[in-house]
Write a structure and sequence with these properties.
Strand content: 15-25%
Oligomer: single chain
Order of helices and strands: EHEEEHHHHEEEHEHEHHEEEHHEHEH
CATH class of the largest domain: Alpha Beta
CATH topology of the largest domain: Rossmann fold
CATH architecture of the largest domain: 3-Layer(aba) Sandwich
Number of strands: 14
Strand order of the largest sheet: 5-2-1-9-10-13-14
Distance between the termini: 8 Å
CATH superfamily of the largest domain: CofD-like domains
Largest sheet: 7 strands, parallel
Bound molecules: guanosine-5'-diphosphate, calcium ion
Number of domains: 2
């Protein structure tokens, strides 16, 4: 079964890791948000792409979900000591990755190629790709003005109240090589439990991508459980934008893109409202506490996708 997954960082990477364990090699493409990317200390940093690569290579930090396991912080300590910017945490091993990526990008290689080369070097068989090789940058409109994404997310710890988002460059961006073909051949598209506003929306803002996904069976997994995000500001964003944060709100958000929606047991009462949107629902344990949970949830999502209407190809 050919599957294309859309993912941001930590939540997306967890389910993508489960999917990678359930599917044969070559059957999974993960399209990753690059709206979070930025230039820092002269380096090209791609937080979501790196979280997905590190997680699938099984070298991610089990504590934070981002960055690397077995990390040290000597370079950052030196930067801090010298009075440089230390608000964005970059470990020593991680820095090596960014240095080499920046060198390759500067020599003219596209980000998708660099990512594929890095994955190959790490022995990751999954096709992980940035949504685009073109520069797309997320801006957050807030009560303290318009902030570049990492200023809002890391430096200000998501404290400003959000009023909206802008994905600079998205309208002229092109899907990275292979994405449209993979979407055309996919048996299903899975929207991972990533932040709908700032992880999934930038991917869907790449021209052509949303329409190509909509041609296939699209199933989303709710990142909100019991009205709360497992991690990060997703619920806070819904509230600040005047929407009651809930799994149902996420289903409504994706709207007619979806044929299936996965929500947690604690939100089971919302399943009839999801169904009323014309979207079939699966109620299960949507929390991924450990690696076994990732694989279990991924298999349930795949089985669910297979049962959905129009599944003649299975
Ligand atoms: P970020 O770039 O690291 O913020 O990455 P994502 O957007 O991919 O992940 C953040 C989202 O993942 C949050 O909205 C979380 O609620 C969601 N998330 C994290 N872990 C889980 C989990 O175990 N289950 C579900 N359903 N959602 C999760
Ligand atoms: Ca992110």
């Amino acid at each position: 079964m050919k599957v294309v997954a859309l993912a941001g960082g930590v939540g997306g990477a967890r389910l993508a890791h489960g999917l990678a364990r359930c599917l044969p090699e070559g059957d999974l493409m993960v399209i990753v948000n690059t709206g979070d990317d930025f230039e820092h200390l002269g380096l090209a940093i791609c937080p979501d792409l790196d979280t997905v690569c590190y997680t699938l290579a099984e070298i991610a930090s089990p504590v934070t979900g981002w960055g690397r396991a077995d990390e040290s912080w000597k370079a950052l300590e030196t930067i801090a000591r010298l009075g440089g910017p230390d608000w964005f945490r970059l470990g020593d091993r991680d820095l090596g990755w960014h240095l080499e990526r920046t060198r390759r990008l500067q020599s003219g290689q596209p980000l998708s190629q660099v990512t594929r080369d890095f994955c190959q070097a790490l022995g990751v068989a999954v096709d992980i790709t940035p949504m685009s090789d073109d520069k797309v940058r997320t801006w957050v409109y807030t009560d303290v003005g318009e902030l570049p994404f990492q200023e809002y997310f890391v430096r200000r710890r998501c404290e400003p109240r959000v009023q909206g988002f802008r994905f600079e460059g998205a309208e002229h961006s092109r899907p990275a090589p292979g994405i449209m073909e993979a979407l055309g051949q996919a048996d299903c598209v899975i929207i991972c439990p990533s932040n709908p506003w700032v992880s999934v929306a930038p991917i869907l803002a790449v021209p052509g991508l949303r329409a190509a996904a909509a041609e296939q069976r699209v199933v989303a997994v709710s990142p909100l459980i019991g009205g709360q995000a497992v991690k990060g500001p997703a619920a806070k964003m819904y509230t600040e934008l005047g929407i009651d944060p809930s799994a149902l709100a996420v289903a409504r958000h994706y709207g007619d893109l979806l044929v299936g929606f996965v929500l947690d047991h604690v939100d089971a009462a919302q399943a009839p409202d999801v169904n009323a949107l014309g979207v079939q629902s699966l109620v299960t344990d949507a929390l991924m506490r450990d690696e076994a949970d990732r694989q279990r949830l991924a298999q349930e999502v795949l089985d669910f996708a297979q049962t959905l209407a129009g599944s003649a190809i299975f």
